[in-house]
Amino acid sequence: MQAIKRFIIGVVCLILVAGFGASARAAQSLIPGDWVGGYEINRNYTPIRTRFSVEGTGIKGTLNLPVRGVTILALDQVRFLSPNLHFELPRSAGPLIFDGRLSGDFITGNIQSGSERGTFHLVRAVTLDARVFDQYLGDYQIGRDSYVSIGRTPPDEPTVGIMYFVHDLSSPKHRGGRLFATSETAFVAGPGKWVPYPVEINATFIKNEQRQVTALKWKPTGSPEITAKKVKLHLFDEEEVKFSNGNVTLAGTLVLPLTKGPHPAAVLLPGSDGGERGRGFGLPQFFAQHGIAALTFDKRGWGASTGTRIGATVEDMAGDAAAGVQFLQKRPDINASKVGIWAISQGAWMAQVAAARTPNVAFLILHAGPAVSPRLQGRMELVNTFPQFGYSQDQIKEAVEYQNLYFDAMNSDEAYDKLQVAYDQARARGVRWVWNPGTKEQLRAQWTRPNVDFDPVPVLEKVQCPVLAFFGEKDVLVPPAGNVAIMEAALKKAGNKDVTIKILPGVNHNFEVPGMGVYGFQSSGKVPPGYYDVMMEWLKKRVNSR
Fold first, then answer.
1. Domain range holding 246?
2. H helices, E strands: number in the chain
3. pTM of the full predicted structure?
């Protein structure tokens, strides 16, 4: 009898052990695969991509930091006891420690870096061959004059993928951001351009029997799902063009309205993000939809344009913009008396010079255009962003002094030597905010070198054409408080009677509702009314366009 009891107990134990093992293996199978997301510490959001795999009885993992160009970092201490996941990223400064909880296709939790705490999130994802994305590019109609346009991620982004833009006649972008693949045809988008969680949009591409993409199921959170048919839009015409400024040849795209000309026109000048003209639907096409031609071009030394940006002054690049204006004024399909300039951020310095010195510029529209020098603008950015990373006023004061030395070193060997000493001393003291100035050659190859103390005020004092300037209330790069009054005073001194300056409430440098953290990839991608619609109404009154 005892032998039978021992036998039964043994069998039960074996069953329990086997069951536990099977349960553990089943739990382990929930984690392997690709996950995309990010972590946030001190309002600084860092996008990450992880991959987990089962090896033997344990789990291995790697982590990529795509914005920093760092890939396949081996993770340590990876443990999963459902639903809890723990893993660490070894670093010389101490590990990043992640403790999260699995819930369906999401992992959320806390992160620790030394004494600092933050949060992280991951969304289950897949890695697709870059060629897969091509079939999804195009336009999908979600309303009478409303579309979702799918395009490639910009060439300056570290990973290949697709972006979405929701637009209509009132705005070239109501909202935009990256789509994260959860299968070959299903994608999600979150509250920021690089932030997939919490999911705010589900998008699924539909294929016919021939495996051709014909539609898109579009489901924003809180709204009904829309099946958007893929359409071939013809809302404008495009022409590849070239024009010259001295020995520099600029390559561009002229976007033309479908209506009969001659048309009013605008030369569009970008900011510091890259130097090649944008592709796909955007501001140039929006102008054309409203009867206004738009010219974009690769900056000198970029794309198909010749020349170099190294050593180029604001005046040199303003000359490129002026050459664009004059090129348009000579075309029979353009109204020569209705050609103006639109510019954003860094491009505004060039636009101000071009508007002041080029005959018959019809208007000047500035998006977050500085009224101070690059040195002062850089100081404003530092002073406004450092508190968000937890730095004290004493640390900010020291950083401002270091930044001034950094700018001086662009044009002075003596200042560069002092800068190197200051950098080495700061590193020895464990200063977190200090940045490596690089080699002397690297520092002096920057666009800022010949322009660091360019003062736009004397230029603005000569601008006579109608001016519309927008500033974002939450802009920490070109804050209204440090620029609006200066611009107003300069244009008043110019005797300019047609000046409109607007501060857009609640938006950042991109005129988007701020998202997580400070930087652009954390922005929400959501553009509220009050910018594009107001701009177009103002512009049509001055160029007599319907």
1. 237-372+455-543
2. 11, 25
3. 0.87
